[in-house]
């Protein structure tokens, strides 16, 4: 049988897995159950909404200034959205009409645009998801066989 504990807020007797851990207490559990703890934190946030938002805004600004976080953000952007890729995506969305079927297998779908070369942004192969994945797998296989 599982141990039970009484919530100091609602007075219900609940199993110990209904309470958050807290090393500072004698039994290692918080005095309020998880539901009451959540309610208290929500109520506290609503009571002090201006202060909470101010604190969050400051922490976000600090995060933006943090050089490690900044480096991670920039690396992520460089990895996935190169200048040529962003330009290609923008041109395709403005200039080309997406067909209603895959140009490789002919299946009726909402195809994805595949660029062999981002320097030629309007040269797009429209293909379904399985064909698109296969194209990337084949390209990886071709590149690995060339380098070895």
Considering the chains and any ligands shown, give keywords for the structure.
alpha+beta; 148 residues
Could you explain how this protein is built, in words?
- The structure is a single chain.
- This protein is 52% helix and 15% strand.
- With 148 residues, it is of the alpha+beta class.
- The chain folds into three domains: 4-47, no CATH class; 49-78; 98-147, no CATH class.
- Residues 141-148 have low confidence and may be disordered.
- Strand 1 (4-6) and strand 2 form a beta hairpin.
Strand order of the largest sheet: 1-2
> How does the helix and strand content classify structurally?
alpha+beta
Report the C-alpha radius of gyration, rounded: 27 Å
| Percentage of β-strand residues | 5-15%
Reported for the largest beta sheet, the result is: 2 strands, antiparallel
Question: Nutshell version of this structure?
Answer:
The chain is an alpha+beta fold and about 150 residues long.
How are the SSEs ordered, and which strands pair?
Elements: E1 4-6, E2 13-15, E3 19-21, E4 29-33, H1 34-47, H2 49-65, H3 67-80, H4 83-95, E5 112-115, E6 124-127, H5 129-147
Antiparallel strand pairs: 1-2, 3-4, 5-6
